[in-house]
Amino acid sequence: MDAQGRMTEPFRAWVQAITSLDIITGTGSPEGVVSASVGRLYMAVNGTAGSILYSKKVSGISLDPKDGWVLV
Q1: How high is the pLDDT of residue 37?
Q2: Which terminus of the chain has fewer CB atoms gathered within 10 Å of its CB, N or C?
Q3: Do β-strands 69-71 and 53-56 pair in parallel, antiparallel, or remain unpaired?
Q4: Residue 23: is it exposed, middle or buried by C-beta count within 10 angstroms (0-12/13-18/19+)?
């Protein structure tokens, strides 16, 4: 942070890197609903066995960042 309390570029890059490591949570499947970059994880908090954890595998099949989630 600089003297005015604004994020400096190195700090901004660090914050973005750290926040990209957390698991996104929600209800139901993220496919077509949750926008994310490749490699992000999503956990359905209301999921049942076999339908809880998803991984973003491809960057928008239809160029939509909400597509490309795969059940893990």
Answers
A1: 84
A2: N
A3: antiparallel
A4: exposed
